Amino acid sequence: MLTTRAYAAQSAKAPLAPFSLERREPGTHDVLIDILYCGVCHSDLHQVRDDWGGATFPMVPGHEIVGRVARVGSAVTRFKAGDAVGVGCIVDSCRDCPSCRKGDEQYCDTGLVGTYNSRERDGVTPTYGGYSTHITVDENYVLRIPESLPLDRAAPLLCAGITTYSPLRHYGVKAGDRLAVVGLGGLGHMAVKLAKTMGAEVTVLSTSPSKRDDALALGATHFAATSNKDTFKNLTGRFDFILDTVSAPHDYNAYLNLLKVDGTMILVGAPEAPTPLAAFPLIMRRRKLGGSLIGGIRETQEMLDFCAKHGVASDIELIPIQKINEAYERMLKGDVRYRFVIDIASLRKA
């Protein structure tokens, strides 16, 4: 076993603090990774504070992991020591159900194995995430980071990137479509960049008028403040698609009315409480409401290659691990442009 430095929460009320854990030595098909950077996802905060229920402690968060291969198992052929690699939200799945065979491991019939706050396939061994110096992962769940992507700015692509890329592809957003992105945070800013690169006409809908300049700089064509009551009246029936990235409670019905006939609203944000949904916004214009969860391994690699080809990466603020609790508080206030990324060198030096 490999003793590994980390930061963990011991309970839902506890701040993250130094922690030591044991990683397995690389097995036949395993890749041991020296972690260099780890993105800070809003879901890290939700899970650490047990907002969604089912949290297990101690918890080491982090599923936007980028590093370099330290060692590989004897049967590994796709990676070698020194390769730049990533690990996202999934570290295993059943590999045999229809979803897994299709490459949609995120919808595994028996349940994916999450990078943290989960259990290995044995149902016993806990998984610990990327707020740590090393991780050992089966090669089938390791991603190759293209050379042209800056490693620190690539980290959030492993969750924020694929969470927005996958629905844009699956629901068929194409050049010329009018797309509204609800919320301009970690997910929203990636949605704007990706959709713009795909040729869509992007409008950002945000409660914060102060984000107008950022939205336009990121590639949006239009911006509208939803704190203005007239916005929902003025934009009625305008959009082909709406990608809703917001995790705070809000009225889905109001946004559905912004869709054209046959328009589609896609949820990727996850509010803690259920949202009431009326039938008429759907019925009266044959609108659709769907959802999307991250993406499979194959699609995540496709997304990374797409981003490398088009020069797309996350806008980040690099922090030392010692400022993680402060970063969580700032996230709650929306005080980040647009993703915190932990420099794991700060953990090695501690």
Describe the structure.
There is one protein chain. Strand 10, helix 5 and strand 11 form a beta-alpha-beta unit. Strands 3, 4, 5, 8, 9, 16 and 17 form a seven-stranded mixed sheet that branches. 25% of the residues lie in helices and 27% in strands. The mean pLDDT is 96. The chain is an alpha/beta fold. The chain has two domains: 213 residues, Medium-chain alcohol dehydrogenases, catalytic domain (Quinone Oxidoreductase, Chain A, domain 1, Alpha-Beta Complex), CATH 3.90.180.10; 131 residues, NAD(P)-binding Rossmann-like Domain (Rossmann fold), CATH 3.40.50. Helix 4 packs across helix 5 and helix 4 packs across helix 10.
How would you summarize what this structure contains?
With 350 residues, the protein is an alpha/beta fold.
CATH superfamily of the largest domain: Medium-chain alcohol dehydrogenases, catalytic domain
Strand portion: 25-35%
Helix content: 25-40%
The number of distinct β-strands equals 17
Distance between the termini: 21 Å
Average pLDDT score: 96
Count the domains: 2
